[in-house]
Prior knowledge:
26 strands, Immunoglobulin-like, disordered N terminus, 10% helix, 32% strand, mainly beta, binds zinc ion, six-stranded mixed beta sheet, Glucose Permease (Domain IIA), 4 helices
Amino acid sequence: xxxxxxxxxxxxxxxxxxxxxxxxxxxxxxxxxxxxxxxxxxxxxxxxxxxxxxxxxxxxxxxxxxxxxxxxxxxxxxxxxxxxxxxxxxxxxxxxxxxxxxxxxxxxxxxxxxxxxxxxxxxxxxxxxxxxxxxxxxxxxxxxxxxxxxxxxxxxxxxxxxxxxxxxxxxxxxxxxxxxxxxxxxxxxxxxxxxxxxxxxxxxxxxxxxxxxxxxxxxxxxxxxxxxxxxxxxxxxxxxxxxxxxxxxxxxxxxxxxxxxxxxxxxxxxxxxxxxxxxxxxxxxxxxxxxxxxxxxxxxxxxxxxxxxxxxxxxxxxxxxxxxxxxxxxxxxxxxxxxxxxxxxxxxxxxxxxxxxxxxxxxxxxxxxxxxxxxxxxxxxxxxxxxxxxxxxxxxxxxxxxxxxxxxxxxxxxxxxxxxxxxxxxxxxxxxxxxxxxxxxxxxxxxxxxxxxxxxxxxxxxxxxxxxxxxxxxxxxxxxxxxxx
Length: 485
Ligand SMILES: [Zn+2]
């Protein structure tokens, strides 16, 4: 009887640990800023009934049985430059696969490039649709939160380059929705749950003399140029927008260099009977007056009667392939509040959005991370966020992220965001799995770390240095864990 009671208590303690565990994901797993250069297009389906769906925010932004979150990038152009995928928490790689083609535009159940990470036997995270050849970790490898593990691609059952990020609880493999909101009460699993917009946004924009009618559709990147030669008519204007209301309309205006109206289209229906999370559209325009009038023209796009963008077009007397201007200025910030010793650090860039380059070139960023002036990571990619892995910054040190934006030809001087690592915010050593709680899950994490680091003969497993790895070492390891708290 008594034995039963003790066993039941142990189960309750473990179950409570799982339920109240929070902020177990310190890093957003993809190097984008949602609603800027990334877009969450599909959430976890919280309704187990077949044919019925429910998302954490009570929206329809999921599909039946979807077990993860899909975060898209803007096009294959960004994929080609690279957008990093980061481990969301510390763990050990359970599975990795990296040989599948990565530019799929139809989801037909193809096999995917992916990484599966175990977090102390408590939960797993999965990262799908990765770019072929980009997986930079192998099975059995220990990874830290914020460590780059691959690049975004469109391998597997995927119609657009995106990351499918999936969390499951162990044992049992049940799906976990880390986001919290009106239809998923409780604490968020994110240390810093990303905020999102539900209003219309212009994610990308371009003007080109190339014939878009003969080009493959998005997610293939449409060409763009900030300038036209006077005789280059007709030309195309294209846009990628998010959060388009049902039955939206569009109107395009071309303003002369003097600012007066040169030409405008009628109000055109976009033909969407229901709201769309994302739409790419293009319009062909022939502005006869441009043939005679060089200078800085402007395109205005109105969606549902509101101005969505005003973009310059430089009209030149003749073709000039070398015409190019540097990207627009950016700012950088370290996000997520005070940085404690050993924490992962995330650096985020703010650009002028769809006008991030005056020629609408695809921009890339070089992130140079340093601690007290000593470089610790450098990465160049198309994403507006980058991460420094956990375990690098120490209390009292200065961590800095310098970011230089480039259009591939011209690079701006870097902007710098920096912070002093807070000694007071150092995590308690007892919180071995970094979930903000000291509980039985930490014992699992500590023992896993210890066993994983075990090497034959002497090694880290011999915690009390008596020349043998045995249960006395467990006592030693647990004593060290209990002492600081
Ligand atoms: Zn998915």
